[in-house]
Every structure is written in structure tokens, then in C-alpha cells.
Amino acid sequence: MVVGNSGASRRSGRGRLARRILAVGLIGSAATTLAVLGEGAAQAAPNCSAANSQEHHLTDDGGCGAIADATSSARAMNLGDGGMAVAVAKTGGNANAINMQPNSSALAGADTRGYSFSVTTGPGGNSLARAHNGGVSVALAGWGGRSYAGDGGARCAGGFAGAFDSTSGQFCLGGGSLWLGDPTGGVKPVGQVTQPR
Q: CB 71: neighbour CB atoms within 10 A?
């Protein structure tokens, strides 16, 4: 079941308000997670940070990687066993990736003054956020969730997931068969291949 507006002809004031509330909530969650974890968690888990550099840490239980050019910043933190967090930024981008659970991955990319936040909060979650052209992309994945925000909009699947992409205005939030927004991002499956509607 899909709840909310997905087409341009169906957009209303309530749909725009829902997107704004979701965006603020997802961005706030990602920013709060980054602030709360801070330096205390960094000492106990692989933490990578880069500005005009690259840094990576690998352990038997996972790792992190961050790459950024001179105009950008990237931060990645892995708190989950067997997990991975990777952030890459260039051309004024700011990328942030946090994996908080086992066997999960958080990937963030940002360029051209974009801000990306990718966070996994449940085991087996996968989140990918890619921001560009001054946009904001947020991807959040819980237990068994998969989320994507970036080129082509926002997509969610599996267990709990949330995603928002400011450039396209697309969002999704929910899990299983109950979703707010369009979890397919306007792409419908055709066999094993997906094509735009």
C-alpha cells in the first residue's frame, strides 16, 4: 500500500507539507546521530574523516573510508560488526555516512555543494545517499531496510527505510507494505529490469 502523493498532477499543499516535514525529520535524525555519536564513539569504532585527504580503517569486523578534495568534507563511522561506512565528497560537497548495526552498510557521496547523509540503524540495512548541485539527500535504513536518495529521486524497500532527495522533491518512509510517499521513486519493475513510467 502506498500512502501519499506520487504524481505531479496529484501534488497538493498537503503533499508539499508532508515532504518538508519528512525532509526536516530525516535531516534532523541524521544530524542528531552525528552529533550524539561524536568523539566518544569514535574511539571505540572505526571513524574516518577527510578534508583534502583520504582515510580508511579496516578491521576484522568491518571498516570505514572517507575521501574528499580541498573544497569538501567527508565523514564515515562504522559501529556495526561486519559493516561498512564510506563517504566521498568533491567540488564543495559534504558527505556523511554512519553504520550503526552489524552486517549493514552506509554509503554517502556529495559533489557541487551537495549535502548527503546516509545512516543505517538496523541489522542488514543498506543506505545510499548522493547529493549534488546544492541539494540535500538523506537515506535511512533500519532492520533489513534498503534506501536510496539521489539521482532519480528516492527509493525505499524491505524493512524500515526512509529517503528524501531535495533536488527531485521525492521521498518515501515506511516498511513492508505500508509507505508514506512513493517507495519506487516513479520506477516500476518489469521482470528483473526497471524502466521509468
A: 14
155 burial (CB, 10 Å; 0-12 / 13-18 / 19+) is buried
Supply 179's cell numbers: 509507505
Backbone φ, ψ for residue 112 (5° rounding): 50, 55
Q: Which residue reads 528516492 in cell numbers?
A: 154
φ, ψ (nearest 5 deg) of residue 75? -140, 135
| 53 CB-near residues (< 8 Å, 6+ apart) | 67, 68
Number of C-beta neighbours around residue 189 at 10 A: 9
The grid coordinates of residue 96 equal: 556523511
Q: How far apart are CA 149 and CA 152, in angstroms?
A: 8
Integer angstrom CA distances of residue 129 from 9, 41, 126, 140: 27, 22, 10, 9
CA 57 to CA 34: how far, in whole Å?
19
| Tens digits of residue pLDDT in 136-181 | 999 999 999 999 999 889 999 998 999 999 999 999 999 888 888 8
Confidence check: pLDDT of 8 > 90:
no
Residue 156: closest CA among 131, 135, 125, 134: 125
∠ CA(143), CA(146), CA(151), 5° rounding? 155
In angstroms, the CA 186 to CA 190 distance is 13
